[in-house]
Design a protein that fits this description.
This protein is mainly α and 1119 residues long. It is built from 63 helices and 6 strands. The strands form 2 sheets. A 4-stranded parallel sheet has the order 2-1-5-6. A two-stranded antiparallel sheet has the order 3-4.
Length: 1119
């Protein structure tokens, strides 16, 4: 400090006597900033020429110190210390480590200022200090005495020149063993006493660097400016200081400066710093020396860490032990080995069996080649790691083909990892590895990718038919793959399945499950072997209950037991998916069976079960289609299915159909009608479905009294509405006219219709024109009741028309009817009602029976009264049954007459196929493939077994059935959409066996024989067919569009009408409906043929026989 003070005082000589200039002069040297405030106070004494008589050091003119100085730009008040206040206190200075001359000068200044307030006890201290000063003082004190008379005493002591200091640099050099980038250690080192003398410029530069390091966020970029020129070009220890400072700012010249130091410990230290700089700048020639540093100082650690952080760039041979040592070194500083070396360590550990330890090394490492992926897969095959799995999956995105192949082929690869690699390879459209890729798709049950591959190359479905059949059952409903395309691929697979080799990617159990799901179960032992005894027992019980011979009653607990057994089983990923599909198939079958059996509780449970299946994330396309078919067949409201379509296919017709069923179930029949209408419009390419849905829409409009919309729909789409009967259209138009207020037109329209019908039936008819018109109108009056439609306002308009047409001749009957209505509104005496009905029956038996039917179903009678009338109705029917044709008996539901059902060929064929599958299946339990067709023939047999219906195979249907089932080969062709093992077929199905099964089917579906005298040759069918030309034209177009060449009948040059066999069935059914058959209440044709279904209402209206196309329609007629 004495040197720095002296440097500042030297400038006073040139500053003259002006105090202001003198103050500025002493602050000009760099040394000024190095002086503490206490030393600066002494310098100000000199600048102020302080004398004993001065009041304050701060001013020579005697300014009153009681007046505070003002500070602040706006004159804000504040008290600041003057420089004399900075002078160190007398007692403080005595205990400091400052030189004796400094202490004495401070005491002299205080004594000269204090006057009488001086503490005399300090005089003795001053005497001691004078003794020390007698031995010699620094020249600055004599100069200070000359400039400041206040401490003139200091001029009496002898002056000695400062001798060069002999400082031991050992501690300083030892402290220099730190990382130059460690700012804390650098600051500590710069705060140590230097082993060499510095001038004020150098000291000032070092001070600025120290202050910058202390100030929080340092600014190394400024250090070079501060160091120049005072701290550049040094030698000896100074060169080490310079080199370390340059290294701390990553300056390239640091190595050159450090390299200039030769000999001794300082040279070795400089060399180590130089190695560290070189390692960080890319010179790895000394890597081994750096890595082998053994010291525990910061520099040694920095050398080791830097070496291992850059080990990837060095061409050195390293053992596993070396690498583990590097890992330990880096872990101490929170660092890790470069990823490639971490992989080498991990690979070595995996080979030693230390998989968990290996995982710790590479869990967040970067993948750069296939070898790394191989090591990761070795680890993942033993332990789970979300981090490693995620990192591996991210690396697959940019992996080379060889790396992808390695991942795909790795035996221990998690299935989803292998799948990702296979998918990436498939995206490259490389055909070289197709087989391997498809194997991965199969094992991972990635059905979407598998089917996409089959679509890209349809021949693959021939090479891998089992996989295509599996895809048919497992493809997600949310898939964008077209269902028709999927069905075509399935057909291709079925054709080639017998010629295909075994599939190594599928286990025996998988193949057996596919066969069970798709048709003919085989080799069920492999499936049974996967289940424990409870599961096996439950599976067999459920399948037996759902078989053709079962009772259809399946307890939920049985399926749950099977699920639990599957959970416990040792299954691969694909087997789990297939067993899951099996459970869903059983649940679907159970729900369908509950719906067939009927009952409120059964239906409620079925709807709940179907909803749960639709809520599954893995809901398959087949599942959604099956549930949709059940909804359409049974008019079920399944909200979960609506939610599914809303999310995945809200633009399709199925969404509107499902939505309509829900609206209908909730009572909102008007919006249900509109939803059905929207669906019908979207189904225009499928004429049959569109027309059937349009019919539903019109029925819902009728129930909702939406007459205007219904009539508008009929008028706007005449082709579609041509499948709707003219009576139904009359019903809608009559109600609309009434709603519009045109009651006269409503009645007139009814009378005109009756006149037209009377004219058509005039040839050979008995009775007068008025009688026949009244008969037509009376039939119209019963129309709403017979078809479950709202009676008003239609029946009111019919009554008005009847009043207008009837004559006095009919007055007696009219009077009886009036008395009947009065009785029903009054006493409701069963005896009186019966008498009135019997009187009416004398002239019109069916009307008398219908009056009793109406009374029974009115809801106005108690149970006893209803039973009395039922007995009376039965007796009345027996007495007149010979004169009442079957077609007039349909409204008489309380007579419990049985429907006579004529079974068409398509039903017999479906039944035969199902029967053969049952016989061919290894466990004789048949297929789990539930369809509407299968449910239909099951229900026919079930209702016949219950004695509710009579079954009859008409000659035309029997003849066609026998022709198509004439030999095993012709029957085998019927299984184009079913998985059949040709070897088993050839072994079991010969001519004799086939004829046995065909006869069994014929017996099952023919419990009633047609009398030989009943023939329909005299019935005119041609005019009816011509009247529905547009319907048959659309049906013909649709059949041909599907790739078929249907057999058709030509009428007036157009080959669009039903084939001869179908026409014969129509004629036979019409003939039977016109006859009086004991205990038969209606004639129905059971068929799936659109030639019947689309004109079913018209056939019933014209000829008196109905058509049923599914189990629900059958139940509606029977139950």
């Amino acid at each position: 400090m004495e040197d720095y003070l002296h440097e500042c005082l030297e400038l006073l000589q040139r500053a003259g006597d002006d105090v202001g200039r003198r103050r500025k002069a002493i602050q000009r040297p760099k040394a000024w900033s190095l002086l503490p405030f206490e030393w600066r106070a002494l310098a100000f004494l000199a600048a102020n020429k302080a004398a004993p008589e001065a009041i304050g050091i701060g001013g020579g003119v005697g300014r009153d110190r009681s007046q505070p100085q003002r500070i602040g730009r706006r004159g804000g008040r504040g008290r600041i210390k003057s420089m004399d206040d900075r002078l160190e206190g007398p007692f403080d200075v005595l205990v400091s480590d400052a030189p004796a001359a400094y202490k004495l000068a401070v005491l002299c200044a205080h004594k000269g200022k204090s006057g009488t307030s001086w503490d005399s006890s300090l005089d003795s201290k001053m005497s001691g200090l004078r003794s020390e000063c007698e031995e010699g003082i620094h020249p600055v004190w004599r100069r200070l005495a000359r400039e400041a008379p206040l401490i003139a005493e200091m001029a009496q002591f002898p002056v000695i020149e400062a001798a060069d200091r002999d400082i031991d640099s050992g501690d300083w050099l030892d402290a220099a063993c730190f990382d130059p980038l460690d700012r804390v250690r650098l600051r500590e080192w710069l705060s140590m006493e230097l082993p060499f003398t510095t001038n004020s410029e150098q000291a000032h530069a070092l001070q600025r660097i120290r202050q910058d390091l202390t100030g929080g966020r340092s600014r190394p970029g400024m250090w070079m400016r501060w160091m120049s020129p005072s701290l550049r070009g040094l030698s000896g220890e100074g060169a080490l200081l310079e080199g370390v400072l340059l290294a701390s700012v990553s300056e390239d010249t640091a190595r050159e400066v450090l390299g200039s130091l030769k000999g001794g410990a300082i040279s070795e230290l400089a060399n180590r710093h130089s190695m560290l700089i070189g390692m960080r700048s890319g010179d790895f020639s000394g890597w081994r020396a750096c890595a082998n540093q053994e010291g525990d100082d910061g520099l040694s650690e920095a050398l080791r860490v830097s070496a291992w952080k850059n080990v990837e760039s060095c061409s050195v041979e390293l053992s596993a032990a070396d690498l583990l040592n590097g890992v330990e070194i880096l872990s101490h500083v929170g660092e890790s080995l470069p990823s490639p070396l971490r992989w080498r360590v991990a690979s070595s550990l995996v080979s030693q069996g230390n998989v968990n330890e290996a995982l710790g090394f590479i869990e967040d490492a970067v993948f750069s080649d296939g070898e790394h992926a191989s090591t990761a897969l070795d680890i993942l095959s033993e332990v789970e790691s979300e981090i490693l799995t995620r990192t591996l999956r991210e690396s697959i995105v940019s992996m080379s083909e060889s790396g992808l192949l390695m991942v795909m082929r790795h035996e221990g690869a998690p299935i989803q990892i292998g799948l990702q690699a296979a998918s990436k390879l498939w995206e490259s459209k490389s055909i070289r590895h197709t087989d391997e890729i498809l194997n991965i798709f199969t094992k991972a049950a990635d059905i979407e990718s598998l089917v996409t591959a089959f679509e890209r190359d349809p021949s693959l479905s021939m090479a891998y038919p089992h996989r295509m059949l599996m895809s048919w059952h497992l493809l997600l409903g949310s898939s964008q793959i077209n269902r028709d395309s999927l069905a075509d691929l399935r057909k291709t697979a079925l054709k080639s399945i017998d010629n295909s080799a075994g599939d190594d990617a599928l286990s025996d159990a998988s193949v057996a499950l596919i066969s069970l799901l798709d048709g003919l179960p085989r080799d069920m032992d492999s499936v049974h072997g996967k289940l424990d005894s409870d599961g096996l027992r439950s599976l067999n019980e459920v399948r037996r209950a759902l078989s053709p011979d079962g009772d259809g009653v399946v307890k939920e607990s049985k399926i749950e037991n099977l699920q639990d057994s599957i959970q416990r089983a040792d299954l691969n990923h694909l087997e789990k998916r297939l067993f899951g599909a099996l459970i869903i198939a059983l649940q679907l079958n159970r729900a369908a069976m509950d719906l067939q059996i009927g009952g409120e509780e059964s239906e409620k449970g079925a709807v709940e079960s179907l909803g749960q299946l639709c809520e599954l994330d893995s809901a398959a396309m087949r599942t959604i289609a099956a549930v949709t078919n059940l909804v359409i067949e049974h008019n079920l409201g399944v909200p979960a299915l609506e939610d599914w379509y809303r999310e995945h296919d809200r633009t399709g017709p199925e969404f509107q159909i499902v939505r309509a069923a829900i609206l209908r179930a909730s009572g909102d029949r008007l919006n249900a009608a509109r939803a059905y209408k929207d669906a019908s419009m979207k189904l225009k390419l499928d004429f049959e479905r569109s027309a059937l849905v349009l019919r539903k829409s019109l029925i819902e409009f009728a129930h909702a009294a939406g007459w205007r919309e219904a009539v508008s729909l009929v008028n706007a789409h005449p082709a579609l509405s041509s499948s709707v009967t003219k009576r139904f259209k009359l019903y809608l138009r009559t109600c609309k006219r009434y709603e519009d207020g045109d009651t006269s037109a409503a009645s007139t329209g009814l009378i005109e219709f009756a006149a037209q019908e009377e004219e058509l039936s005039r040839n050979g008819a008995s009775g007068s024109i008025r009688d026949r018109r009244v008969e037509v109108l009376e039939g119209l009056y019963r129309y709403p009741d017979e078809h479950g439609l709202p009676p008003d306002p239609f029946q009111g308009r019919v009554r008005a028309a009847l009043q207008e047409v009837r004559t006095s001749k009919a007055s007696r009957q009219t009077d009886l009817e009036r008395r009947f209505m009065i009785e029903m509104r009054g006493k409701k005496d069963p005896r009186e009602i019966t008498i009135l009905a019997m009187e009416v029956a004398d002239t019109d038996p069916i009307k008398g029976l219908w009056m009793l039917e109406k009374a029974i179903t009115s809801g106005d009678l108690d149970a006893k009264q209803s039973n009395t009338l039922k007995k009376s109705q039965r007796a009345l029917f027996v007495s007149h049954s010979g004169t009442i044709p079957v077609k007039q008996r349909r409204p008489l539901r309380n007579l419990s007459l049985k429907p006579l059902i004529m079974v068409d060929t398509n039903i017999l064929i479906e039944a035969l196929k199902d029967d053969l599958i049952k016989e061919l299946s290894a466990d004789n339990l048949g297929s789990l493939n539930w369809t509407v067709e299968r449910a239909f023939h099951w229900m026919l047999r079930r209702r016949a077994g219950e004695g509710r219906i009579l079954l009859h195979i008409p000659p035309a249907a029997r003849g066609e059935f026998m022709h198509r089932a004439k030999n095993p080969d012709s029957v085998l062709r019927m299984f184009s959409d079913t998985y059949i093992d040709k070897a088993i077929w050839s072994e079991m199905v010969d001519d004799a066996f086939l004829m046995q099964r065909v006869d069994s089917i014929c017996r099952a579906f023919n419990s009633w024989n047609q009398p030989a005298k009943v023939r329909g040759e005299e019935i005119d069918l041609e005019d009816f067919l011509l009247g529905h030309r547009e319907v048959f034209q659309r049906v013909d177009e649709q059949k041909r569009r599907g790739g078929r060449s249907p057999m058709r009948t030509s009428i007036k040059g157009e080959d669009i009408y039903p084939e001869k066999g179908d026409r014969d069935i129509m004629l036979d059914a019409a003939a039977l409906a016109s006859t009086s058959i004991s205990d038969v209440g209606s004639v129905l044709v059971a068929t799936r043929d659109s030639d019947f279904r689309l004109v079913s209402r018209a056939l019933e209206e014209e000829y008196g026989f109905g058509v049923v196309g599914d189990a629900q329609q059958l139940n509606d007629r029977v139950l």
